[in-house]
Amino acid sequence: MDTYFVDVILPLHIHDTYTYRVPQEYNGVIRAGQRVAVQFGNRRLYSAVVRRVHQEAPRYMVKYVLSILDVEPIVEERQMRFWEWLAEYYMCYVGDVMAVALPSAFRLASESSVTIHPDFSGELSDLSANEMRVVQLLSEHPVMSVDDLGRALGLQKMMPLLDSMIERNIVVLEEELRQRFVPRKSSYIALAPEYGEPGRLKELFDTLEAKQSTRKQVDVLMKFMQMSQFGKTAVPKRQLLSATEGAVVSDSALKTLLKHGVLRQEDRVESRLEQGASTARAEDIKLNDEQQAAYDYLSQCDKAVALLHGVTSSGKTEVYIKLIADVVRRGEQVLFLLPEIALTAQIINRLRRYFGDLVGVYHSRFSASQRAEVWGRTMTQDPGQRYQVLLGARSALFLPFRQLGLVIVDEEHDTSYKQYDPSPRYNGRDAAIYLAHLWGARTVLGSATPSIESYFNARQGKYGLCEMKHRYGGLLMPEVLCADMKEEMRRMRCEQGVQPGAGTTHFSPFLLENIQQALDNHEQVILFQNRRGFSLRIECDDCHWIPKCQHCDVSLVYHKATNSLRCHYCGYSIPLPTECPACHGHHLTMKGFGTERIEDDLGILFPKAKVARMDLDTTLQKNRYLEIISDFQDRRIDILVGTQMVTKGLDFDHVSVVGIVSADNMLYFPDFRAYERAFQQMTQVSGRAGRHGHRGKVIIQTFNPYHQAIRNVIDNDYLAMYESQVTDRRVFRYPPYYRLITITMKHRDPDTLNEVADRYARELRGVFATRVVGPEYPSVVRVRGLYLKNIMLRFERTEAIAQAKRIIMEMADKLKSDKHLSSLQIHFDVDPQ
Ligand code: ADP
Ligand code: ZN
Ligand code: ZN
Known about the structure:
- The protein is an alpha/beta fold.
- The chain contains 25 helices and 34 strands.
- Strands 14-15-13-16-17-12-18 form a 7-stranded parallel beta sheet, with helices on both faces. Strands 19-29-28-20-27-26 form a 6-stranded parallel beta sheet, with helices on both faces. Strands 2-1-4-3-5 form a 5-stranded antiparallel beta sheet.
- Strand 23 and strand 24 (573-575) form a beta hairpin.
- Helix 1 packs across helix 2 (94-101).
- The radius of gyration is 30 Å and the shape is globular.
- The relative contact order is 0.08.
């Protein structure tokens, strides 16, 4: 007998694959892409994925594979190559990639995942700092494994903390995951076709009714006829039995009817997903000239990647739908990526209209079994079951496509495409381009405000480029106006009749007048403020004491809902102090304002209006964001206040005024992308104004009305923004001319950190010379008790850096092999955002 071995990928942060021995009985059965159960370390069991089956016996003793978990492979060769590319490009291990790529339902119990309980109120006041941190992490990554949470919190034993949170219905340990994913089946009862003609059935009834012993069968049959519209449809077995009394007797009567072939039983797989048939044909969409030109260009373009630069509301989605229809007709699949789950809700309906049941949705807010089902329906060979249009946030990249023909990345500029933590720290847009390349498929990037990188690539001729400069249906671009806050403050002080008191300084009279007018006309308003909480910090007027986080180097943010001061980095929170602990003075004042304060003030200024807020604090619960969006859509909300969540491509019908409450926050952010980001966010939120008929108005509150970024927004001049930025980027050696890798080092002790950071930087300089910048402290020096230090590397665009990445990682491994530095953390961020 031959002896076989398998190399497997474990869902762990470790180098390479591991080799196991295949038990004889699995010879010929075990295949690449199947999951197997293996033991790793002392006792722990893992589900690993077979990468390769071979006969090269290792020189050391290896353990046996314990069992095969799948009949058919659940991942295919190309997917695993995609994982390997991600690991190499983003400087992590393939196990890290697999841990995020596979739906959690495919994991074993010891890798169980934690999610926020659907009934959790979002009330944070009675949570400990660690508990708050768990909630915060889960709001960023809705599903995390117990191990990952433990690592993020730096706790050896995570379960005691989780147990208490599970008991209080704050989180759930997904029980479903303890079993493997099993499709939910249910039995239906239908009339056998032979009994379809009335004469035959009547005859049967007569014979059955004649005898006492068959009375029960008559009951069941009568009930069945009634429930099935006289035999026309199938009836769920469960319902039929519960409708006929005395379930045990009915059950045996039903069995007899089935045995005699009067009725038939069918087992159907029940979907956990929403379905809907299409109601319109993509062929019937009439594109306008600009859209038609874009469609023609995109479907004939000979470049692998093409950028569609279309202003907000130019009708990019209709162009996508036409392109999708062509691919679907060829029997191939389309991946449609969006940066945020919140956006999928609106697009789903638009796609379902044309593609009905062919549309599958995949994202991290779905339950484990829903995701496993989408996974199965992406890969199935059964044409009646198979999804052809897959819509989702970045994790949809990992679906097991069979025949990918087109990838669409909408709102390609959006920073939410980037995953920060845990690794792989990948950019969904860039990964999508590589995925399409693996399939020989085309990628279409779409945006009203393309990233500098993508526009640069288009200008260089690396990507195709087409533009749509007008809104669909002759709608005008919104009118963008500045509220010059210096002027407005003066006006407020001089003018009579402006109500003094709460909030009036956050709102210029100009903005207030426009809000009032919109409300009078029964139109809606969106207000954007990029900070959450009530006041950004508290300060003692007498001694200038500012409350700071115990674990992080940041000031605490006041949240009125919980009357507490909270750290936005780690969740640490304390009750609002009544006096200054430093000087015992009583003059604590609030500085700066966030979304919560704006919502509060609006309640006072416009008591009749319905105001709602959409930010991280109000959307912790599973479907809360969907409720807010649909409430606003159906006009149960008049004014919607929010963080960048409200700037994204949501499409509302009755918004006439958009207010950017403090633009200056965005302009003076210490980051080389600040200008680009400010332009994108302001232009995007402006795009929410004035759809469906009327021109909208945008009001930007600023002390710097002549700042170049604001001028570019007012003139809707993307190109001017682009030109000024690329010049700066070239001069200061930033992307797109240079590629960046940021190395973040973390340690409890600042002296140790300084010493190793210097050592690492010195070693790096030995190889990469002037490409190395730093080490430097980031703007927040300490987070969750760990000091941070960054080293940056910049490489020219044209340099091949695969080899450089390997060297950088090897040096880091060598550094960490020092026993004194076992708690040192080193993170790599390739193409940081
Ligand atoms: P974008 O995504 O470019 O911001 P949308 O695709 O949301 O713009 O289009 C804006 C509005 O115009 C939508 O309500 C859309 O249904 C409508 N629209 C765009 N193109 C067409 C078309 N060819 N036929 C009918 N309606 C269209
Ligand atoms: Zn004081
Ligand atoms: Zn903190």
